[in-house]
Design brief:
This is Lipoprotein. By secondary structure, the protein is an alpha+beta fold. It has one domain. It contains twelve helices and twelve strands. A twelve-stranded mixed beta sheet has the order 7-8-9-10-11-1-2-3-4-5-6-12. The relative contact order is 0.21.
Length: about 350
């Protein structure tokens, strides 16, 4: 759907970088939390392998509406944006997996819980540099249930007649480190950053940390924080993104549009800068990182952010919390299954679902 306005795209890119990074950007001497965190994040980004456990819970999610020039939905078809927002209330996504850089591979089990349905869905998947294999859940009415389907990036690129970005998590990791650090750097340490004691950080039971750092911007500093975002943080992120074509593709940004936005944001009186300051609200952004033996062992995020479109269509709100624990950095990746040789193309599943769907009236 073409519902993302330019200010909303920029807000999503900047907040995405901050959320991925978890914490960074304090200013100070080499012994400061910044130095520790940047080193820990660099270790994670450069790691040859690691295991991870992630959980994210959506307390509220309001999605932008389709653009006015998009085709109208068929009569009788539900409002998907509203339906997804309703289903997302209380939705929890859990992901346990193993990452390996060379050859690139990530095995993960994704568990999706929808209290409003209620429904619980478990999706084992394997991701390589050019393919994603997903095991079809048993609840899907298809002969493919319990088997793997494959999404082939090279095949999709051939069909579309244009190159596609490889499915390489290392790109996102480098983007996480570079763009996230650029986003956080303009924030003044005394106001936004502080060291925490273990009992203040609500770390997982049994997890020990040598140091813990928190970044937080909330309602009290919202207006000031938005000025930093619009005038300094987002321009710095765009500088990083524009320097690497892979980053542009990862964020779904058009180069010409990104360059125009960077130019406008250089002027705090530009319409784009004013839109961001007025329409993007940070009720709370709290990010915590815990370091053990110089490595990032844990990161958490509490986010309450909204974007208000005066026209209404592009309005967006997300209230969520998430956490990730990292372990076994640079240990041999212990994959437990072979890449399925009999995986079916994903369009076979689409065909099966289409055949099983009841006729529309």
């Amino acid at each position: 759907m073409k519902f993302m306005t330019r200010p909303l795209k920029l807000a999503a890119a900047g907040l995405g970088a901050a959320a991925l990074l978890a914490v960074a950007g304090c200013t100070g001497e080499e012994a400061s939390p910044k130095a520790e965190l940047e080193q820990a994040l660099a270790e994670l980004s450069a790691a040859g392998s690691y295991a991870f456990q992630s959980t994210a819970t959506f307390k509220e999610l309001q999605l932008p509406q389709p653009a006015a020039d998009e085709p109208a939905k068929p009569e009788g078809q539900p409002d998907l944006s509203g339906l997804m927002a309703e289903l997302a209330k209380g939705m929890t996504i859990q992901m346990d997996g193993i990452y390996q850089r060379e050859p690139m591979r990530t095995d993960a089990t994704v568990k999706l819980t929808l209290p409003s349905a209620p429904m619980e869905l478990t999706l084992p998947m394997i991701m390589t540099g050019d393919k994603v294999y997903i095991q079809v859940p048993d609840l899907i009415p298809s002969e493919l249930a319990g088997k793997y389907v494959v999404i082939d990036a090279d095949k999709l690129a051939s069909e579309k007649g244009e190159p596609m970005q490889k499915l390489d998590p290392s790109v996102q990791q480098r983007l996480m480190l570079e763009a996230g650090a650029a986003f956080m750097k303009p924030f003044e340490e005394k106001t936004y950053f502080k060291s925490l004691k273990p009992e203040e950080a609500n770390l997982p039971q049994g997890l020990e940390a040598d140091s813990i750092v928190q970044f937080q911007a909330d309602g009290a500093s919202g207006e000031q924080a938005m000025a930093v975002v619009a005038e300094q943080a987002l321009p710095a992120v765009l500088d990083v993104v524009l320097a690497n074509e892979a980053y542009l593709q990862a964020l779904g940004l058009d180069r010409a549009e990104a360059e125009a936005s960077r130019k406008e944001l250089a002027d705090p009186n530009s319409e784009l800068s004013k839109q961001l300051r007025e329409q993007l609200k940070l009720e709370q952004v709290k990010l915590i990182g815990a370091i053990k033996d110089g490595k990032l062992a844990y990161q958490s995020l509490d986010l309450n952010v909204s974007y208000t479109d005066p026209q209404g269509a592009a309005s967006f709100k997300a209230v969520l919390s998430g956490a990730t624990t990292y372990s076994k950095l640079n240990e041999p990746a212990a994959f437990t299954q072979e890449i399925p040789a009999d995986a079916q193309p994903v369009d076979k599943l689409a065909e099966a679902l289409g055949a099983a769907a009841p006729p529309t009236r």
